[in-house]
Amino acid sequence: MSFFKVLLSFFFLFIALQLNLASAATFDIRNNCPYTVWAAAVPGGGRRLDRGQNWVLNVNAGTAGARIWARTDCQFDGAGRGKCQTGDCGGLLQCQAYGVPPNTLAEFALNQFMNLDFIDISNIDGFNVPMEFSSVSGGCSRMIRCTVDIVGQCPNELKVPGGCNGPCPVFKTDEHCCNSGNCEPTNYSKFFKQRCPDAYSYPKDDPTSLFTCPGGTNYKVVFCPGNLIVSYNVI
């Protein structure tokens, strides 16, 4: 084995040990909406949250591609099977896969490059419930909010019962989905960006929408955090 391969092996061993030593991050998921939501998380599953209720979720260090969202107008039977108007995840109370758009997303990857957590709110899959995603420990004071009445202002082409779809799920074109890796903001993505400047509006929106905290930080996700901003801007 070459010296380089030995060093590389030690490097990956070091990273693995660091992740094993890192503690799970805690996510306090709260419903402040004046109606019931069915919180969903991958990984994590799902839980009904009436107004004022919360759900504490522990997520392992090193988890990537994770998301939390709210489902609305759900009906489940005793076996945890049914459907939701927005955010449905295969008709299951305990989500095992991502939800169907539209759904406002809190996305995160823990203990990644330089042991940083990467967090964001995304409207790429549209919007169904106002959201606040904030850090609550680790010396990080990051707060991301998307609390404008997007459903009430949604362009007709994106409207669905209970939510406002993102343009990619509706049109499924490279222009809106960035399938080739090259795309620019569109009038539809600008509709979301003007209302929620800190949230992803299209896939290449990283510079203004992706934030970091030190690994080991704990977080809070609030549905309907209050101070709903009603704006009457048009596209």
Automatic annotation (TrEMBL):
Family stated for the protein in its record: Belongs to the thaumatin family.
Protein name per Swiss-Prot or TrEMBL: Thaumatin-like protein
InterPro entries the UniProt entry points to: Osmotin/thaumatin-like_sf (IPR037176), Thaumatin (IPR001938), Thaumatin_CS (IPR017949)
CDD domains registered for this protein in UniProt: TLP-P
Organism field: Acer yangbiense
Signal peptide limits: 1-24
Disulfide bonds: C33-C224, C74-C84, C89-C95, C146-C196, C154-C164, C168-C177, C178-C183
Pfam families (UniProt xref): Thaumatin
